[in-house]
Fold:
Amino acid sequence: MDDKQSKTAFIGLSQALTGIAGSLLVPQFDSMNILQTIYDGFVNNAGPYAAQVILERFVSLRDQGLGDDEIAGRILADADNGPVAASLTKLWLLGNWYPLGSQSNPVVISSNAYIQGWAWKIAQAHPMGYSELEPGSWAEPPPPLGDYITPTPQS
Amino acid sequence: MQPTSSTAAPGTDGIVYDVVIVGAGVSGGIVASELAAKNLNVLIIEAGQPIPASRQDYMERFFTSPAKLPEAPYPPNPINADPSEFNVGRATTNDLANVRDQSKSYLVQNLGDNQTPFTSTYERVGGGTLWHWLGTSLRLLPGDFELKSKFGHGRDWPIPYDSMAPLYARAETEMGVACTVETQQYMDGLYPPGYQYPMPSIKQSYLDKTLQRSLAGVQIYGEPMNLAPTPAARNSRPYQGRRVCAGNTNCIPICPIEAKYDATVTINKALTTGKVTILYRTVASRVNVDSLDGKISGIDYITWTDPRGGASGHGTAVGKFYVLAAHAIETPRLLLMSADDRMPNGVANSSGQVGRNLMDHPLYLSWALMPEDKPIYPMRGPISTSGIETLRDTAHRRKWAAFRMEIGNEGWNFPINDPYQTPQDYIDGTNVSQLNPKLEKLHGTALVERLNKLFIRQFRIANLVEEEANPSSRVSLSWGYQDRLGLPRPLIDYRLSEYTRKGFKKARKVNSAIYKAVGATEYTVTNTEDPTYFEVDGEGFNYFGAGHIMGTTVMGSSRADSVVDSDQRCWDHDNLYIVGSSTFPATGTANPTLTIAALSFKTADILGKRLSK
Structure:
């Protein structure tokens, strides 16, 4: 796979694991350069070989016509790919890379990776230390979860 | 060990300041600002690094820190570092994970004889520990000043509430406290008629409002469980050039927009007068006493350039008056380090009380999940916007330690480090959070929906339990363990009294009753392996530090058993004052900063008067 194919597969794999649309994980106008940030964090920490193996596995399953849920389930069940997929899921949610099979000693990818972590949106909240919400909005319920994790319909 | 260099330090040679202050935090800052406004010359010597030009430097350190602990934004990084290698150490959360390991813990904790660790931390940096305070600005209540005479525990303050009230008002103006007087019903009658805070209360969170509705009419131990918006030094309106609180849920470790007051506000104001000089990276190492008149004649200091590089020079700061404002562990440490043949127990210590009566508000933490049909959507707004204050000053204090209750808006961040733990449990099939008892492994939409359902129902209550003064809980010097400057690190002896332990037992009962009343499911866990573990009547507890380090140079009405008088002047030395919570003879039931600030105004007034003569 060339770089573009790898990144396309990476977005597809990330969508399957997190349940969050690839168009939200990596917005069309990626002004924060989030794709490169998370992709580099993934390749550098998982290692280029493991990264290539899991992306090829994803492409293979996708080419078999399997859906996201099935693909993610199979990859997570792989002895070699499973821990890599788990750490990649954590990376998207938490902005940290956790060593394979570990819940401690994470590597913080960057301040942007922290700020863009999806756990905060899943909580219908904002990263601690980074809020763009209106002052006082905490007094009322937030918008529904769908507003945070559902792509805007294409017009 | 003496400093390794004899290079003269710049800044103080030949100058006699009106006042020399040790410590550039909130108390030293207020004294400096008030005196500078009276055209007096002030020198502050600060052990740590300068206040940065922009807090973005600290924000970046916070964002990229793997553990978002209170000390994370501030230099130097203490993680996996030996405190003997740093010129300027301080107690950090890292200490608490390594209380028995002096190669990792700056505080040397004596855990023999059933003692337990002291678990509050502080900063040694320009601006001091207020960089990571919550902003809570409650006044002490009248009974807080009369713990001994009214309830038979610990010590009284030598100051009645009535004389504190006008000082509190000045502190509230300086710090910009947001509070609507009418919301503080438990304070009824304690404000002067018509009193108003500088701005109205910060909005209560959706969690607060939900609990308030569910607790209407509920009484526990005879008191109503009313949630009052907490007076806080966070802007509900633009104030003195600072922005409105945007609810970043990050008061601790750092407010990203300075909507919360911190000491840099007052220190910057002081600096604009041109009358205040601050020497950073300058560690006070000895208070010198004139053998003829007993007055302080100078404060020796050591300068440094590299945080791990040892001394770069030394000198002596000279003033007409001296103020120690180095917080409740470093202030007694300095006085004790100043011992000599004439004063073998240290400076200001004829009472033998320097370092003794170390106190905190040991914190009982509990946590729960609201029912599925009553989400409260945490992790938004300031970390806390309300508290229950009705059990602070009741007749129960004869039998058990009083406490206030802080309602947390940050989900289970404090108890289990969410939103980090629960996702990992559901990704890895573990159950550290207790929220994944079936050890499920989820992915995709199922993962998102499960996490959402759990996150939006999390909340916690923290009880800040009072302590009574106990001379055996103390800071002394650990000559066997030194910092990079060769100065002895603090040696800590500490234990909770029966009075405080009984308060914990009641705190648990109150919190559990609240969870039941609002239909929440409690998940509080007690760790018997943790060094803070203790038992009351066979019931086990853990405690946390509240970050409220108090006592150690207590004020009193007699020089025989206290270090300073009610003006915070040392009984032993006419020109030496101590400001900060080290002078508190009892912790009371309010977070200490507002009282620290109020008393700093009092001492500044007295110094101003004495210097105008």
Remarks:
- Chain B has two domains: 1-55+124-176+261-353+548-613, 200-259+363-466+497-542.
- Residues 200-259+363-466+497-542 of chain B form one domain.
- Residues 1-10 of chain B have pLDDT under 50 and may be disordered.
- The radius of gyration of chain B is 24 Å.
